[in-house]
Amino acid sequence: MAAPPIDPNLITLLRLPLAPAAVGFLVFWDSPWGVAIALVLSLLLEATDALDGFVARRYNAVSDFGKLFDPFSDAFARFTLFLGLWAIGAAHLWMILILFYRDSSISFFRSIAATRGQVMPARKTGKIKAIVQAIGVNGILVFLLAAHLGYVPAYLAVAEQAPYGLTLPWWVMLVVTIVTGASFFDYLAGAWPILSAAWSNQPSPTETPVD
Hints:
7 helices, Four Helix Bundle (Hemerythrin (Met), subunit A), 211 residues, globular
């Protein structure tokens, strides 16, 4: 099979600088242009997430490094974007903490499995979480851009004018947070046999239950 036109890991690598750049435009350029550029960069992030996997599978270039680098870059990029939304008041700190704790915990679960010679596969709730997060972030950015351009009422976007200070982006982030938290408990249930065996230093089951 022919070599891929570009190393899929290089495509994955693009997410690392793109995410901070998007947050920089969002937070430090309070204008329609700042939000618009952040939205374009965020959409590019999602495009690279789809493209690196396609290239790797199409050209049989899947690697052990890529299997770990892809989820790391996804978590890095999305968490960076969520920090940007928190910085502009679209989310509360407790939401960001739940997102962070979930991803950190899953990384820990996978590390424990790896030390015992096992691989913890992706679960359906993880894929659902990724889709909801992608739609949530980009949906919020589209909404904020529309608010900057005057296409939506200010009380839906400006916390000081919103009922109880809760804007529409805040409610979107609430849904994202709930879905992400539910994914944590699903992964915990799936990893529990390995975790409990590791805790008591007993032999692990031969494989991790999956949906």
